[in-house]
C-alpha cells in the first residue's frame, strides 16, 4: 500500500514538471504561428522577381 503513495507522489511531480515545461513553451512563443512556416515555401520571394526584372532590363539596354 505504501508503494501507491510513492507512485502518486512521483506521478504528481512528473505532471508538475510537464506543466511547467508547457507554460514555459507558451510564454517563449513556441506556439505562435504554426501555419506560415510550412506555407512559406509555396510563395515566391518578391526580391527575386525584382532582381530578375532588373537583370532583364540591363540585358535589353546592353543589346540596344
Distance between the termini: 94 Å
Describe the main β-sheet briefly.
none
- Give the overall shape: rod-shaped
Supply the number of helical segments. Answer: 3
Mean pLDDT, all residues = 84
Strand fraction band?
A: under 5%
SSE series: HHH
- Alpha-beta content class: mainly alpha
Report helical residue fraction.
Answer: over 70%
Could you please describe the fold and organization of this structure?
The protein has one domain. It has 64 residues and is mainly α. The N and C termini lie far apart (94 Å). It has three helices and no strands. Pfam families: FixS (PF03597).
Brief sketch in words of this structure:
This protein has one domain.
Record keyword descriptors for this entry.
single chain; 64 residues; mainly alpha; 0% strand; rod-shaped; Cbb3-type cytochrome oxidase assembly protein CcoS; Cyt_oxidase_maturation_cbb3
Topology:
Blueprint (H helix, E strand, L loop, with lengths): L1 H26 L8 H4 L6 H18 L1
Amino acid at each position: 500500500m505504501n508503494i501507491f503513495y510513492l507512485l502518486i507522489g512521483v506521478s504528481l511531480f512528473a505532471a508538475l514538471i510537464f506543466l511547467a515545461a508547457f507554460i514555459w513553451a507558451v510564454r517563449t512563443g513556441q506556439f505562435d504561428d504554426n501555419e506560415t512556416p510550412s506555407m512559406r515555401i509555396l510563395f515566391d520571394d518578391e526580391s527575386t522577381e525584382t532582381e530578375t526584372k532588373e537583370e532583364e532590363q540591363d540585358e535589353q539596354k546592353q543589346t540596344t
